[in-house]
Structure formats: structure tokens, C-alpha cells
Amino acid sequence: MADLRLERDFPVSPETLFAWISDGPRLLQWWGPEGMHVPEHDLDFSRTGPWFSVMENGEGQRFKVSGQVTHVKPPVSVGFTWAWHDENDKRGDESHVTFTVEATDSGARLVLDHRDLGDDEIGRSHEKGWTSSLRKLVAALG
């Protein structure tokens, strides 16, 4: 099983960063790789329970992912399950994501852990997607 860990530092307080990784309207500003928009969603990581998002690229291709928010510990961490849906809306293999916020001397650090991704190719694909999404978060908070 491939696991992914990414870290980014931000010039904001841990509380502000936590809001950007848990609050639905803020999440929508950076959720999904560059070039994607989110026309359908139930993105709210401020509470436990189900979530989903449909990301759409410029060619109209749609990609649905869903899961359960498993824990919310403000302003430290949010955890949620993650599974892509196929063209028949059937969920695939489930993995788990944790966003952890740490205080730094200059603000806050986001640690993104995505576990149980399957093989290395799936891990590389998720690394590319999360890296792109995090660039959007950096731009929003920079």
C-alpha cells in the first residue's frame, strides 16, 4: 500500500489554517487540482459524517469522490475516508486522509497524510492532485 505525506507552511495562525481545511466555503476555494471546479458537493469537514465532491475539468469530465469525516479536533486535525466513484457511481477502494495543523515560528504548517492508496501508481496520481490543490491553498493564503 502506498502512503503519501505532504507538508506546506503558511503565514497564518493555526486557527486560520484550520478554518481553511474544515469550512466548506473556504475548502471550495482550493479543493481539487488546478483547472478543476466543483459543481456539486457536500464539503464540510467541521463535523463528522458523510461528504462528497464532484470535480469537473475544462472538457466536462466529472470525477466524484466521497467518504466519511471520521474526526474533527479543532484547531489540530481533521480525518476523512476517501473513495473514487466509477462511471456507474459505485465507490472504489477506500483510503484515509488526515489534515494536521502544527504551529510554527512564522505561522502554521499543514501536514497532509493520505494512507492506504493501493499501488505506487495510484500514490503518484494522488500526489500530483494534492500538490496541485495545495498550490491553490498557498495562493489563497499567501
UniProtKB/TrEMBL annotation:
Pfam families: AHSA1 (PF08327). It comes from the Bacteria. Residues 12-141 form the Activator of Hsp90 ATPase homologue 1/2-like C-terminal domain. Gene3D superfamilies: 3.30.530.20. Belongs to the AHA1 family. This is Activator of Hsp90 ATPase homologue 1/2-like C-terminal domain-containing protein. It comes from Ruegeria marisrubri. The lineage of its organism: Bacteria, Pseudomonadati, Pseudomonadota, Alphaproteobacteria, Rhodobacterales.
